[in-house]
Amino acid sequence: MSARPRPGATRSGETARRTSGRRRIAEWAERPLWSLHLVLGLTALLTTFGLAMVLSASAVESYVGGGSAYTFFVQQLLGVILGLFAFYLAMRLPVRTIRMLSFPAFVAAVVMLILVLIPGIGTEIQGSRRWFDVAGISFQPSELAKVALVLWGAHMLTLRAGPARSTRELLVPVVPGALVMCVLVVLQPNLSTAITLAIILMSLLWYIGFDLRILGAIVGAGVATAVVLTFTAGYRVNRVRVLFNPGDDPQGLGYQSRQAKYALASGGWFGEGLGQSTSKWSYLPNSYNDFIFAIIGDELGILGSMSVIALFAAVVVLGIRIARRCADPFLGLVAAVATTWIGAQATINIGYVIGLLPVTGLQLPLISYGGTSTALMLFVFGLVANAARHEPRAIAAIEKTGGGRISRLLRLPVPQLSGGAVEQSRGRNPNTQSANTTRSQRSSRRSGPPVPEHRDVEVRSRSTRTTGRRPS
Questions:
Q1: Among residues 364, 339, 321, which one has the least CA distance to residue 452?
Q2: How far apart are CA 274 and CA 292, in angstroms?
Q3: Per-residue pLDDT tens for 187-245?
Q4: What is the pLDDT of residues 411-431, one digit of tens each?
Q5: Are the C-beta atoms of 348 and 357 separated by less than 8 Å?
């Protein structure tokens, strides 16, 4: 008869196993291409899950409207295919080329925002003129405006960032350009997208290290403007009224929000099963678009809903990590701002579905139905992946080994940095990098996420651089 193990020895063994497991995870997370592989994995998960949920949520309405259960799914699939090409292009583009194209993209976005307001050019749906409709294909220029503001704003701010730069040099022309975009979007009308553009602008200024007092004043002015605009349109006032008094008009103004809560409550912990939701049978309007999170809760339950939230949280955390480690300040700022925008948009969408915010027209990134949004969002994820390939250790590993199977399969070029940044990034260990980050944090004008590292490389090389839904 064998002797029973002592309790102390058992606890000691469990502690050793946990310590060993944490050490293995830490070693795995410090691999040179870990950030890149995680971006690819999160993008694949969100895109595949989005396709599955669009098919499930839209099948009924698609069949009733056109006789085929796959109409909306096929359109979404085409947007994903186009987006995958955009993702691949964003990974391959050199930093210099992205920066050269940022201003033309900004100008093109502003021109299209003007053209879409002209009757006969822009298509009006339910009182909003937001779309171009060409040969049955719809395009929403406000989605392009978000991407253009991220790229152009990051380009201008990294050019002008530095201790010798004045506040005016940082504000102009980025803030006036963003305000022009916001005004044009509000005229559509599309207040929710204008708020998203404002979030992008605030993120740009925050991550570049802008003065907190002035930034707070800008935020206050933006909030006051949003409140005024909300109470100047009857349908916006009704949405606020529904938020605070959800039971006043359950079959009218509060119908959609009420049905979304019924769908979430029906799912329980584990859901009714993929494809088994009853709310999508014409009970919940826009179930495959703005309110797809309610269908997720109905079919996959609380566990499925929390998994989606965890995926978006992982995207934001990973984007900040990449921004801190990226050897190029421009790409680092793009990664930080883009993932903050994605996280904020997902938060707003989920917030109004569960009844914590007024209903808006913002979609759940990569999951809600919408070809334009999906394609451009995949392009943004490709930019984040490009930034991950520009981490110092990633550059050294790619130069040494060719980047592994994925880089060789996709034939991705070796990341190119100007001004000798590659040589400076080689041999930099994580401890030195952390120390440099800490020093930059202490010397910054405010506490918060630091500007991406290697700004000195950017400054030295500057001389060589060429520079259909309802109203919301």
A1: 321
A2: 13
A3: 988 899 999 999 999 999 999 988 889 899 999 999 999 889 888 877 888 888 888 88
A4: 888 887 643 344 434 444 333
A5: yes
